[in-house]
Amino acid sequence: MKHETKISGERIETPVESPLHDVEQDELKGSSGRRNLIIAAIVAAAVIIGGIVYFSGTGAGETSVAAGADEGSSQAVTVVVPGSSTVERVINATGTFAARREMPIGVAGEGGQVIRVLVEPGTWVKQGQALAIIDKAVQNQQSRALAAEIGVAEADLQLAQNQLERAKQLVGRGFISQADVDQRTATRDQAIARLEVAKARLRERQAANARLNIVAPASGLVLERNVEPGQVVGAGSGVLFRMAAGGEMELRAQLSESDLAGLSNGVTAKVTPTGTSKSFEGQVWQVAPIISEQSRQGIARIALPYDPAIRPGGFGSVAIVSGATDSPVLPESAIQSDAKGAYVYIVSKDNKVERRDIETGGVNASGITVTSGLAGNEKVVLYAAGFLNPGETVNPQVRGNEQVASAGNGG
């Protein structure tokens, strides 16, 4: 506020600072100070959160603050170019152990009462070795009777031969006719025939007696015993013993159609029985010619040497090496999955994120094999792919395969 004072006719204007004027100046100074404090606080907050804050103005005392740069607005991601590696194609499956050549053994002869059983399951036997003894008391008497018949036939033959020789001497002197000689010759021949019949009947009886005992048809391992002493057995008694020829075993692995299609005889396999950490080397010796209509699976039969840990009827797992392929290999961190299946994120030439659906194969020390979906020359997001979205712009940081392998192995 201003006051005017007039002296000696001249108008003299003298500025006078009123108390109100002083208050206005103090308010202005205080307002400027508070504004500066507010700006400083905002700048500090902007630095803490790592964002970018701009203040601009044209008047005196106005401040411009910037933190960060335009290029920092794109998220930095680690990517890897997997290339292509030679990877063994391994088929993992499960199956049941069984004898490679199982032999069911029953009664081959007329049967009878079992008086002794000579083997137990787990016994190794040779071809022709007796497994069980059948009572042959009646059959032995029959054999003796047939042997006696042979003696009678031999005596009859001797008598007929002597009569024929005398007749030949007498016919020249005229004491008997030629017809008598012919008669005696026929009698001698009949005696020879009866002797041969008696001998044949004895041999038949002896062969039948030999078949009474239950014997091993081949060398191998006894798997089952289903007979006890005192039991009467015959043709309808069923299987009394089961054997594995040569003791050879096998795993009958259940495989899908696609796995069977790439499998051939002779490929190696590593078999592990359930309940043990011991593994056995085997070979595929037969691939099933048919597929089950119900399960859509077939059987690959894997030959194995004998070992007590391999028990027919038991369960086991197998890894079959069925060749090698050139495929990309990625660490587990790069592979995502959802309802549609497995996928990865790749970074395009313009640094845009793209989803790529893949199919995975076996797992080895280097990572997971990608059987389809990748050529190997793509930039695949290695970490934090779950926080990305297709179409997002990123700043890719390429990492070497050696570093990826080291990280994947805990290095």
From TrEMBL:
Annotated CzcB-like barrel-sandwich hybrid domain residues: 111-238
Keyword Transmembrane helix among UniProt keywords: yes
InterPro entries: Beta-barrel_RND_2 (IPR058792), BSH_CzcB-like (IPR058647), RND_pump_MFP (IPR006143), YknX-like_C (IPR058637)
Domain YknX-like C-terminal permuted SH3-like: 329-395
Pfam families per record: Beta-barrel_RND_2 (PF25954), BSH_CzcB (PF25973), YknX_C (PF25989)
Origin species: Alterisphingorhabdus coralli
UniProt region (Disordered), positions on chain: 1-27
Transmembrane spans: 37-55
GO cellular component, one term: efflux pump complex
Record's keyword annotation contains 4Fe-4S: no
Keywords for this protein: Membrane, Transmembrane, Transmembrane helix
Name listed for the protein in its UniProt record: Efflux RND transporter periplasmic adaptor subunit
Family recorded in the similarity comment: Belongs to the membrane fusion protein (MFP) (TC 8.A.1) family.
Any one Gene Ontology molecular-function term assigned to this protein's record: efflux transmembrane transporter activity
Domain CusB-like beta-barrel: 251-321
